[in-house]
């Protein structure tokens, strides 16, 4: 699969792109801040060079600098050159740069959801780039656009042409983006975190596609990613970046087998890997804190003259589980699998049917007021720590706000409590009077955890709580969660799409698909001896941070029942069959 | 779509029904006595009582209301107390003038407001932006009668370029349209500016730049269509603002529209006329909103009418 990393290297080959001492400064209140510091590299024809690093390492700045798309006037290139063939792109005027963009260097972005114009059909967005660069006449453009969509393996390409971005899934939109990027057959494709926002199976498909296109067209790819698994899978060579400086540049095997720099070693050590998880003790005898029986969440779809319910979206169907004290149950699945909805149902944030007992208290039919005492036992930590904190309140006030709401403490007691909570999550007391924007992402998530802990809950629902964090920070937050569990016997409902992280933290795993359980059981059984084809598909799509292993091509996804049903139609529930012990697998799907 | 339309029409009818009730009750509570107004100051108490009886003003509120509503449903808006004419005829005679003024004011404010907004957004935080935003601030805060009189003084009195008032030619239309559209131009320029700035920072604009498109192409094809969406929703609501503006502007320029009719009727407590004008403007506002909601999905494919 992977082209030999030595191809096209050596002193004789001419690089398609040659970056020398590239330095970018960003204007701040206190003067210029260097965000990219003397970066140099060559990109050879047909190779994949990965720029890897955590947030703030300058990876995206590099891409934007090459494309001439740095946000002006805040950011500017202060030094260095970007040679495309013999032409230096630094200082090129806009008119001549426009002939480079899309025609010679293309770029795809992280967010396929927002990177396409919502008011234009796929056809118009594709034809626009073809016509701009005079790749064909106006009459030929639609046929050429259609061929591009076909090349990118989009299903029903004729229909896709007429559709708007919001009618397409994330994976389809990213395919359209790649089609736009490759429309003018550029020499270089810059892919800035192209799969970060996608489900792991879709990610695998997109990565396969980029490789295939690269092979067919001989395009050189500059792959920007934070995911070492993606690096291992895609790259020939790697530049590890940190705070705007290259830490280490080496062929991919060398980076993973024998990293020379301390930072590369540290970064790789923090990467969670499937199958390298620590042992966990058995908690079968502990008290059941959460008992969920036959939980269903259905949303009404309305329509017609009187806005009557015409259909139902079955977000969660007949899910049962229990969580014991000190235990971690992980919910995994792709977007739309209902995993977050289950978390919300436990806290009464969505209407649900079935039975939910929190520490013995049945919460079915409870009003919001009646739910309040129950919520002291179960709290939630969300994905985006930036968005789940109020930017106009100090973190100290936010951390103890639940105590005030529940009238459990007042006055100086609140201050004491806030200091105690901050110590528990590894933040210092002098930070209490600061505002959220003064914290890093990892610190903010610690604040969110401190807030969730303020009521001394027995259960915490962690909804993708570490997904937005860099790997090194992610590892620290996971350690913190583990410490809290060891110390207080906290239980977690750990919702995640990341199988490697789940492997690190879970006692038991539940695999969900379109609102139903496909497989459940102890971590070892589900993740290391998966029985359901959906679980296997999910696991095989995970990029492995080991360049010597090649991921097999993903089998095509089997058809699934639509979760939206007309009224009166009955939902076909799957049946769970016991494999061994508590390991159960859905049958008939 | 047709289901949606039917539902929205039913909703609109209910809103209008509510408005008839509220307006009727409010006018019923006005302390002035219409019968005395009609009879004149020298009339005897007996005459006044007779008139009151004739008009059914002695009946309980609900009887009066349902009688009015019944007539209204048959297209009968009653007779003016003071002008010897049917309210419907009075309004019909004056409605075209008002509609003409309104449409040309909308065109004026859109051309002025959108242009200023786009230019200000593209020159953000530069002198041109600051100057234009001061202009829009002035146009929002200046009372319409001041603007109207000022324009009249400059263009009609000093330069003599445009007629002082009246109705008939295109020249008559210019100053009233600008006066009426001035306020909206201020609002729209601010809205368009902030909407443009939002859209300019969207990811798809970066995609458009990465495609190598020209700046002009990006602004006209990608940024402006997206930026104009929130403005379109505003136009529907705007008709309400126009209705109050029209009363002032038509008086200043002697424009024979329903605003002038309303002003005369209010001064003389001519309740059937006030009711009639209120109903016409309420209908215009409700229809304006309905049209804005119906047009939105044609421009934005993400909006589904259900």
Sequence stretches where pLDDT stays below 50 over 5 or more residues of chain A: 1-10
**How large is the share of residues in beta strands of chain A?**
25-35%
Strand order of the largest sheet of chain A: 16-17-18-13-19-20-23-22
Quick one: overall form of chain A? Answer: globular
From the alpha-carbon coordinates, what is the Rg of chain B to the nearest angstrom? 24 Å
Query: How far do the termini of chain B sit from each other?
Result: 7 Å
How confident is the prediction overall: mean pLDDT of chain B? 87
Largest sheet of chain A: 8 strands, mixed
Largest interface: A-B, 37 and 28 residues
State the order of secondary-structure elements of chain B, H for helix, E for strand. Answer: HHHHHHHHHHHHH
- Beta strand count of chain B: 0
Number of strands of chain A: 23
Can you tell me the overall shape of chain B? globular
**Name of the CATH class of the largest domain in chain B:** Mainly Alpha
Using the CA coordinates, give the radius of gyration of chain A.
26 Å
Mean pLDDT of chain A: 89
Largest sheet of chain B: none
Number of domains of chain B: 2
Amino- and carboxy-terminal Cα gap of chain A: 32 Å
Q: Determine the oligomeric state from the structure.
A: heterodimer
Task: Provide a descriptive summary of the structure in words.
The complex is a heterodimer of chains A (589) and B (306). Chain A is of the alpha/beta class. Chain A has 19 helices and 23 strands. In chain A, strand 17, helix 16 (471-488) and strand 18 (491-496) form a beta-alpha-beta unit. Chain A is globular, with a radius of gyration of 26 Å. Chain B is mostly helical and 306 residues long. Chain B folds into two domains: 2-73, no CATH class; 88-299, MetI-like fold (Orthogonal Bundle), CATH 1.10.3720. Chain B is built from 13 helices and no strands. In chain B, helix 8 packs across helix 10 and helix 9 (203-210) runs antiparallel to helix 10 (215-227). The longest helix of chain B has 36 residues, at 87-122. The radius of gyration of chain B is 24 Å and the shape is globular.
């Amino acid at each position: 699969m992977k082209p030999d990393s030595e191809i096209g290297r050596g002193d004789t080959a001419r690089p398609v792109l040659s970056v020398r001492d590239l330095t970018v400064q960003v204007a701040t209140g206190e003067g210029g801040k260097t965000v990219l510091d003397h970066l140099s590299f060559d990109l050879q024809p047909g190779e994949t060079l990965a720029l890897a690093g955590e947030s703030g390492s300058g990876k995206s700045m590099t891409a934007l600098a090459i494309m001439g798309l740095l946000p002006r006037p805040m950011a500017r290139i202060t030094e260095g050159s970007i040679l495309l063939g013999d032409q230096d792109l630094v200082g090129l005027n806009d008119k001549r740069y426009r002939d480079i963009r899309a025609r010679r260097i293309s770029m795809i972005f992280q967010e396929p959801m927002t990177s396409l114009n919502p008011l234009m059909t796929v056809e118009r967005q594709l034809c626009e780039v073809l016509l701009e660069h005079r790749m064909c006449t106006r009459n030929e453009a639609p046929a050429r656009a259609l061929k591009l969509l076909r090349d990118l393996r989009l299903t029903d390409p004729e229909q896709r042409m007429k559709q708007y971005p919001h009618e397409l899934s994330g994976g389809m939109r990213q395919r359209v983006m790649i089609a736009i990027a490759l429309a003018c057959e550029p020499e270089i494709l810059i892919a800035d975190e192209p799969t970060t926002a996608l489900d792991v199976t879709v990610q695998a498909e997109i990565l396969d596609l980029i490789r295939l296109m690269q092979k067919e067209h001989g395009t050189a790819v500059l792959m920007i990613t934070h995911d070492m698994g993606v690096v291992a899978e895609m790259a020939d060579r790697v530049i590890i970046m940190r705070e705007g400086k290259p830490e280490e540049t080496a062929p991919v095997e060398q980076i993973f087998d024998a990293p020379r720099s301390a930072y590369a070693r540290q970064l790789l050590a923090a990467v969670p890997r499937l199958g390298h998880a620590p042992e966990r003790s058995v908690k079968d005898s502990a008290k059941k804190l959460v008992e969920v029986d036959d939980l269903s969440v259905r949303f009404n779809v309305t329509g017609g003259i009187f806005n009557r319910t015409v259909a139902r979206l079955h977000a969660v169907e007949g899910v049962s589980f229990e969580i014991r004290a000190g235990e971690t149950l992980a919910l995994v699945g792709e977007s739309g699998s209902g995993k977050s909805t289950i978390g919300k149902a436990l806290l009464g944030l969505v209407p649900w049917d079935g039975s939910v007992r929190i520490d013995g208290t049945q919460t079915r039919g409870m009003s919001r007021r009646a739910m309040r005492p129950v919520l002291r036992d179960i709290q939630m930590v969300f994905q985006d720590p930036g968005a789940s904190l109020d930017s106009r309140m100090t973190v100290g006030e936010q951390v103890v706000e639940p105590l005030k709401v529940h009238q459990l403490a007042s006055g100086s007691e609140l201050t004491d409590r806030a200091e105690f909570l901050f110590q528990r999550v590894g933040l210092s007391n002098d930070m209490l009077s600061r505002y959220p924007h003064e914290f890093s992402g990892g610190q903010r998530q610690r604040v969110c955890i401190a807030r969730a802990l303020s009521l001394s809950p027995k259960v915490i629902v962690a909804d993708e709580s570490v997904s937005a964090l860099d790997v090194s920070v992610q590892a620290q937050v996971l350690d913190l969660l583990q410490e809290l569990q060891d110390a207080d016997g906290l239980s977690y409902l750990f919702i995640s799409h990341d199988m490697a992280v789940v492997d690190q933290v879970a006692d038991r795993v539940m695999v969900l698909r379109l609102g139903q359980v496909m497989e459940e059981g102890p971590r070892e059984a589900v993740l290391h001896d998966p029985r359901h084809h959906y679980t296997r598909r999910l696991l095989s799509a995970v990029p492995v941070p080991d360049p010597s292993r090649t991921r097999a091509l993903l089998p095509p996804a089997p058809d699934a029942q639509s979760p939206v049903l007309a009224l009166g139609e009955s939902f076909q529930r799957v049946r769970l069959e016991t494999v061994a012990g508590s390991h159960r697998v859905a049958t008939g799907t | 779509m047709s289901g949606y339309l039917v539902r929205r029409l039913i909703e609109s009818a209910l809103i209008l029904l509510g408005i008839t009730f509220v307006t009727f009750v409010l006018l019923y509570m006005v302390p002035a006595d219409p019968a005395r107004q009609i009879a004149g100051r020298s009339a005897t108490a007996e005459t006044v009582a007779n008139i009151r009886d004739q008009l059914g003003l002695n009946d309980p509120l609900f009887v009066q209301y349902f009688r009015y509503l019944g007539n209204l449903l048959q297209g009968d808006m009653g007779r003016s107390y003071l002008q010897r004419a049917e309210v419907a005829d009075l309004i019909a005679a004056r409605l075209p003038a008002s509609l003409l003024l309104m449409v040309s004011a909308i065109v004026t404010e859109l051309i002025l407001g959108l242009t200023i907004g786009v230019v200000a957004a593209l020159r953000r935080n530069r002198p041109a932006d600051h100057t234009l935003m001061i202009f829009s601030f002035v146009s929002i805060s200046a009372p319409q009668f001041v603007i109207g009189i000022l324009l009249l003084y400059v263009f009609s009195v000093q330069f003599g370029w445009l007629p002082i008032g009246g109705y008939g030619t295109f020249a008559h239309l210019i100053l009233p349209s600008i006066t009426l559209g001035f306020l909206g131009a201020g609002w729209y320029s601010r809205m368009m500016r902030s909407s443009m700035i939002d859209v300019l920072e969207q990811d798809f604009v970066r995609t458009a730049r990465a495609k190598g498109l020209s700046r002009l192409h990006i602004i006209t094809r990608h940024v402006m269509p997206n930026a104009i969406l929130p403005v379109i929703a505003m136009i529907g609501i705007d008709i309400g603002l126009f209705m109050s503006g029209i009363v002032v502007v038509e008086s200043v320029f002697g424009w024979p529209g329903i605003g002038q009719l309303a002003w005369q009727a209010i001064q003389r407590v001519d309740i059937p006329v006030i009711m009639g004008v209120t109903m016409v403007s309420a209908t215009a506002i409700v229809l304006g909103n309905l049209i804005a909601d119906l047009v939105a999905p044609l421009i934005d494919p993400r909006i589904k009418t259900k």
